[in-house]
Amino acid sequence: MSGDLSGMRFLTVAEVADMMRVSRMTVYRLVHSGELPAIRFGRSFRVPESAVRAVVDAHIVDVG
Q1: Does residue 3 register a pLDDT over 60?
Q2: Taking residues 8-35, what's their average pLDDT?
Q3: Which is nearest to 17 in space by CA: 40, 41, 38?
Q4: Phi, psi at 25, each rounded to 5°
């Protein structure tokens, strides 16, 4: 794996929950279901910011 991670931003579960305005448990459920990609560091998860944007974009509904 030789990717450049300098431009990539990782968020904590609490930061993701705050951004999405959901509970931390909801974020954990999304991570464990595989719907929200995350990397595990020890006992904590880090979620790429781009993954959060992709999940939100995928769930936007046009009710117009």
Answers
A1: yes
A2: 96
A3: 38
A4: -60, -40
Res. 2: pLDDT tops 90: no
Question: Residue 61 — pLDDT band, cuts 50, 70, 90?
Answer: confident
pTM of the model: 0.81
Distance of CA 26 to the CA centre of its chain: 11
Alpha helices by DSSP H, 1-64: 13-20, 24-33, 49-58
For the sheet with 44-48, list strands across it.
10-12, 44-48, 39-41
The set of residues, in sequence order, having a beta carbon less than 8 Å from that of 28 and lying 6+ positions away, is 13, 45
Token pair belonging to 4: 């450049």
